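Lecture 7 notes: from sequence to structure.
We start with the chain below.
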Amino acid sequence: KLNITPLSRFKTIVTMKFSAVSVLALAASASAFAPAPQGNRNTQLNMSLKNDIANAGKAVLAGAVAVGIAAAPAQAITKAELNELSYLQVKGTGLANRCPEVVGEGTITPKSGARLVDMCIEPKAWAVEEEIGKAGKTEKKFVNAKVMTRQTYTLDGIEGKLENSGGIVFTEQEGIDYAATTVQLPGGERVPFLFTVKDLVAKGNGNAFKPGFQMGGDFNTPSYRTGLFLDPKGRGGTTGYDMAVALPGLQSGEEGDDELFRENNKTFDITQGRIEMEVNKVNTEESEIGGVFVATQLGDTDMGSKIPKKILTKGIFYARVEQ
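Predicted structure tokens for the same chain:
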């Protein structure tokens, strides 16, 4: 028979309780550092417009803790909720690269002279047109690409005038309407391009913004590089050398310059792209519209020395009508 004193029994009970608390604390700390579940982003270009809308609802919202530094992922928020967040609550979360969510299915009929403001265009998927060889034949197909640019590829603050004479016409005028972006093909090749909607003139298929309303038009795509850019040989459009000084043997005459003519003579190419947009959410009280878009444009020409690739972009957009 064991002789257990009251003091020994007390120590045993305390030890057991402390062990149980330690196990629970360890489990809690492990779960706290586990990655939070996030919605899978569907980047397949064969997804429908409905899938685009579903993915739009999975955008990340950073809600700050008491000190406003750490954040946890959550669902997308509206423009009004976004405006309530402070700088520290948004900083470092990627929320600034997201477009707000619109709730409602109303109708807005803008008058001529109204403006479309605070437009945000957020890409969700990219593809590059490539020549695919199959059975001895080659055909052009869009190949899914992965974005390599950090979260700075969304266009924001775009605005322009609206005309409505039986059909809505939007003319883009200003805003952060371009973003230097790079995507990577499955084989590792990287394709830079200037994602933009500069000088967009989009014509609609009706006189009111409502679910199902569509509008589209052409826009200008400026050169990815500017005239002040210098290539590895020090050649530029408006400054730098006018030839590759490291290859003097090929610069001895007019015929010797043929092979390097496009490399030596830099150009600022402006190409044309097109965007199609469809509205699926309208908040009449806040005069907000939201939907999806599909855009095509040409990539970087390396200032005239390369043939540009065709790039397809799909995503969501947000805008507010200012009467």
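Points to note: DSSP finds five helices and 13 strands in the chain. Residues 6-33 form the longest helix (28 residues).
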